[in-house]
């Protein structure tokens, strides 16, 4: 399914703030999720997904000294079709700069963070899934713990990258975990589609949440849409609100 429009002033109840199952999700610690010494690899379909999916977990892993690898599949330059203010040319430069600032705000060790940009075209990853899988496979190694967007997340690019990441991880002998993003904003009635039995909760302290929220606001191009040409914010207030929850959820 596809996500509903999140800038509607009369939003229906959403899974992230209504589902009773959220309270009973088992807590998992970082050591159980990423064994000591293992490298964590985050695969982000678009700039900003690295913070929205695992901005808290990345901080916890960095504090424990885990090697980190970030793969950015697209540069997000197609987020504002038809916009004069945010043309594809401008966004292709601006959005990676936003990611640099966001990672800095998370407090990640930029001197040792391995970051590779794929340069794929966003909003077209379903057609490029095989090539995306080949790209990801080149940067994974046995023993890695890989995180990317859930393959049923309700966004074509998220789903394609999720499928490609899972296949690449299996191919090289890495462990793979899905992270839902848009799915949490489905209407409450869709909560039966969530694989609750696979869900695990990573607890975040107040400062970790604050840094994650601060990092999300680095994506200035995504905070305001252009109503005149029908473009809604990619990071509307409801997502920013969810970013302040004291936990993140991964599927194991």
How do you describe this structure in short?
The protein is of the alpha/beta class and 252 residues long. The chain contains 9 helices and 7 strands.
Number of domains: 1
CATH superfamily: LmbE-like
Helix content: 25-40%
SSE-based structural type: alpha/beta
List low-pLDDT spans: none
**Major β-sheet profile:** 5 strands, parallel
Radius of gyration: 17 Å
Strand content: 15-25%
CATH architecture: 3-Layer(aba) Sandwich
CATH top level class name: Alpha Beta
Give the CATH topology. Answer: Rossmann fold
Q: Mean of residue pLDDT?
A: 93
* H/I helix tally: 9
- Can you list the strand order of the major beta sheet? 3-2-1-4-5
Give the strand tally.
7
Q: What's the overall geometry?
A: globular
Distance between the termini: 22 Å
Keywords: Hydrolase
EC number: 3.5.1.-
GO molecular function: hydrolase activity
Protein name: PIG-L deacetylase family protein
What does this protein look like?
With 252 residues, this protein is α/β, with parallel strands linked by helices. The protein contains 9 helices and 7 strands. It has a single domain (15-251), classed as 3-Layer(aba) Sandwich (Rossmann fold). The chain has helices at 15-18, 30-33, 49-63, 88-106, 129-137, 156-172, 206-216, 220-223, 237-242; strands spanning 40-44, 68-74, 114-120, 145-149, 175-179, 199-203, 247-251. A 5-stranded parallel beta sheet has the order 3-2-1-4-5, sandwiched between helices. The longest helix is centred in the middle third of the chain and has 19 residues, at 88-106. Pfam families: PIG-L. InterPro entries: GlcNAc_PI_deacetylase-related, LmbE-like_dom_sf. Keywords: Hydrolase. Its EC number is 3.5.1.-.
